Amino acid sequence: MKHYTSIHDIDDINSWIADAKALKQAPLQDVTLGKDKTIGLLFFNSSLRTRLSTQKAALNLGMNPIVMNVSGDAWGIEFGDGTVMDGNTAEHIKEAAAVVSQYCDIIAVRAFPTLTDKTKDESEQVLKSFVTYASVPIVNMESATGHPLQGLTDALTISEHAKVAKPKVVLSWAPHVKTLPHAVANSFVQAMQKMDVEFVITHPEGYDLNPEITGNTPIIYNQEEAFANADFVYTKNWCSYSDYGKILSEDPNWMITKEKLGDAKFMHCLPVRRNVVVEDAVLDSDSSLVIQQANNRTYAAQLVLKKLLENL
Amino acid sequence: MKHYTSIHDIDDINSWIADAKALKQAPLQDVTLGKDKTIGLLFFNSSLRTRLSTQKAALNLGMNPIVMNVSGDAWGIEFGDGTVMDGNTAEHIKEAAAVVSQYCDIIAVRAFPTLTDKTKDESEQVLKSFVTYASVPIVNMESATGHPLQGLTDALTISEHAKVAKPKVVLSWAPHVKTLPHAVANSFVQAMQKMDVEFVITHPEGYDLNPEITGNTPIIYNQEEAFANADFVYTKNWCSYSDYGKILSEDPNWMITKEKLGDAKFMHCLPVRRNVVVEDAVLDSDSSLVIQQANNRTYAAQLVLKKLLENL
Amino acid sequence: MKHYTSIHDIDDINSWIADAKALKQAPLQDVTLGKDKTIGLLFFNSSLRTRLSTQKAALNLGMNPIVMNVSGDAWGIEFGDGTVMDGNTAEHIKEAAAVVSQYCDIIAVRAFPTLTDKTKDESEQVLKSFVTYASVPIVNMESATGHPLQGLTDALTISEHAKVAKPKVVLSWAPHVKTLPHAVANSFVQAMQKMDVEFVITHPEGYDLNPEITGNTPIIYNQEEAFANADFVYTKNWCSYSDYGKILSEDPNWMITKEKLGDAKFMHCLPVRRNVVVEDAVLDSDSSLVIQQANNRTYAAQLVLKKLLENL
Prior knowledge:
The structure is a homotrimer of 312-residue chains. Chain A is an alpha/beta fold and 312 residues long.
């Protein structure tokens, strides 16, 4: 593995899950592996879990994390090819990525989509530019269309909490007041497709994810029907993909409640808006796995960094 | 001690002062105590001394500091119970505090008061929410009503510079152009009440601090009278407590001058506005202890972190 | 050397270049020198290379870097002497510098010029205030009139890539859309004046740098003439010095092209605006040394920090 940009970079999800569990048992087992190595965490967007858990993962490997809010700490980066840079951007990604590669052994990047320009978002311009122009491994800390550190975390969490050999996992859309990306949902879908689970997706009509990602995964437009006998309900809002970037529904009937959930475990990548996406009664109960998920972010990131370090 | 949120968490101030002095003599004596441990410094507000000295203290103990400006680096946090989060806040403190506890062995928090909503400020909503929902020790890096790292620092500084067994210490209000919190004054009052000093407070009428905090401490509305035979003059502006958040006076006659100070030592938590709160002639003289105080911030923080680490 | 504020702090540039090359060969040779030592990086302005390379340099020496965006993380600093601080600044540099000296063994500062007040800029108020009021060594991470870490980097890069004993080096102005400082150009001029090179400066009339800095260095107003037989073309935009802060020309004929460059190597401190300052064809070719320059920032900074640490 040269980079970790998508769930497709995982060759064997079951062995990765086993490795992550082993790291979680003894997080400091590789504390000399990253000695005198530096990871640059570049944020084009806000972050809490990713910012902290990736730093923690790096520290567990003995690495030195250097964190930078690109726009706030530096200046606007240009991604266009051949641009006459007489506008608001002060440095081209060709230089920026190559330069940061001089100081960091690994570069991790967070860059959200525009949600207005589908073609641009699907081109993954920022992430792919780093892959192209950097000379060190790139880690995706959530890009326009994927959040593979979260997807790996979620696979690990489901594996830890499954009580049957082949659990039923439901990805459910839920309402939200803001236009949100598809990245977390996409990576979750891709992770579940690699696992031995019964996996279905449920959302209102008009909210179908990219069909190239969902593939053969069953889509059920009736949430109650989808939830029948579920072991895990993974919840996330996203905006319309076909009517790109639009909010087509804020229907509160899609909010997750304790009653709907039944015996299933509740999962969410966080941050979550209480009583909009899910009611308090779910999050405040033992049915919720959201804090365990957040904890697993450390070990997913640590496994990815470990594999990249071993390959340097 | 499970948390350090107030001066009341100090069981025996004289033994703490002795311990802090010992740390100051040999700051690296416990450099392995915090090995592979992480402290998260969460700032809801600006900071210079606290930001740097708490990092320095953590480094002296071998800890890894992770610093985060909550609003700038992440997003708005919701503290209300049962809120339908369809507004500007994106994550509830219940999740945020529990999540950060997954990555940090100690969490330190700075969150200033509104100075418009007395009930809310006195409830210490932010600090207490972290205590309630985090699963690790919480350190108060200045909250709505207290700044106990500063209070401990001040007690240490007075102990170091006292030339008599029971020095006279005066807390004096001074003018300022902005509405400032009571936190520093409150913690200083509480620290002095635990020490063997002759302690009086002086301020214009209408500026009485919370009477539950000042208790039996004498309050003198005449600054000159209060300063008579003082060994230490601790100066701080605060807004009115009774007429909450209001500036009732900017009377320059309350500014501290070399003449007023006499042989007393001048103390201030900093930042201080020169020639508004205190004249240059004081700060630029040997009567000023403000830099020594700032230095002691490291050892006060280090002692608190050491005690918390020993108790993990 | 007590501080590193200007190229004039370099006693013997050839021996410094040799030392920097040795560090580059074995960057971790002094990894215990900075153990338990802290460097504070204080940014009054944006930074990418300087921010990352100085941290990397400190880490290579085993130091703990603490980074702070002064305005964003703290508040406005007052530099005026005797000011009645009833305005927007909350802390005086006298306190700020002395206080930061309590927590950091070395302080590095970036503070750009106003480009509107020549007298103030030339007084180097911010940098000199730190030198005056701090009690630890100060490193200039780009001040109003100089960028000596860059100048040392550039000298090192030229030394590495020179193919003749006394190469011809041209400093060329190039167009830009914004008003830019003279700092990089000044330090480059001062560095070249110390080296055994044939050095000329070229720019449109009206763009003469401070004559006290350029001294006897030949100035040629015809770019083509200046470039004849050049080995290195160092490019940089700056605003007018005589008509202080003004943009007198955006003439695209001064942009650097592959054709103009010929066999010379292209150098720039970055960030660079593509197709405004220099065309893509130059930056995307082997003639460009900009990434190698960026890499050398680490070793220039590391040499400076090493010398300061050895002198503590």
